[in-house]
Amino acid sequence: MCIPLQLKFAVLIGATACLPLSHAAVAAETYPVKPIRVIVPSSPSSGPDVITRLIGGVFTEAWGQQVVADNRAGSAGNIGAETAARAAPDGYTLFMGSSQQITGPLVFDKLQYSLIRDFTPISLIASTPYALIVNPSVQANSIREFIALAKAKPGGLYYGTGGVGGAPHLATEMLRTMAGLELVHVPYKTIVFALLDTLAGQVQFSFSVLPAALPMVKQGKLRALGVTSMKRSTLAPELESIAETLPGYDIVGWYGLLAPQKTPPAIVHKLAAEVLGALKKPEFQERLRMLGADPIGTTPREFGAFLVEQNEKFRKLVDAAGLRAK
Fold first, then answer.
1. Which CATH number fits domain 34-128+252-321: 1.10.357.10, 3.40.190.150, 3.30.428.10, 3.40.30.10?
2. N or C terminus of the chain with fewer C-beta within 10 Å?
């Protein structure tokens, strides 16, 4: 039987078109066949680092492959983000992102990455409020007293952050603009150094994720005045929400797993399924809550929509505070 030439080409093209899909499906089915590296844009023992190690344990238990946390601290997380954005999109390099990496590109035009453009979202894992932490010498025991003190000493209060444009910086800028304060910014390489200098009295206050500061607060070495979330934190319910004094104030930190753009969708969804499975387990949820983080868990699509919403929220804040740099 003679098969028309056009039909032969159609069959050939159809078969060829199926090849990439088949290859991707096989790759996802066998993935992972070697250790996975997760780039963490902050120092060891930081929030993103601890969350990475928790999620890494989930992957290792499921697939038997080692998960390595690759800490790349500096520049409010921008160094780690740029490194991850340039990594091969094969599922073996992932990125533990946070609100820090949304704000960086909004402040600095020359950064070589965009969390939305250069990454594929996997899952939003958890969120946590920041806390306003002061040196015990600061004569304020509440948010209201702190604002009154700052107004009485314009330019007299110094605050430390992990870098210009990071979420703690913007949390302070939101406080400054909403309360009409004059404050002096002292940026450090990481938030750990900012906390240490707050402890030493070199700066008067800083914003930190609550779990990182609580041990020093409980020891009386630092004083926590309030949290940045709209509602009080279950980790420290005695701390007021800043919104109780400044209605509308609301900014939280979050942790989410991402992969370099063009990572095969089948691998992305395989990773997301493991994260979501872990987040449904009460014992895993409890481990997160003990760290002061509220479990979330989203699909890749939901996480992508969240990133767009966060980008718009912080863009408005950066513009209002006049923080954009070149």
1. 3.40.190.150
2. N
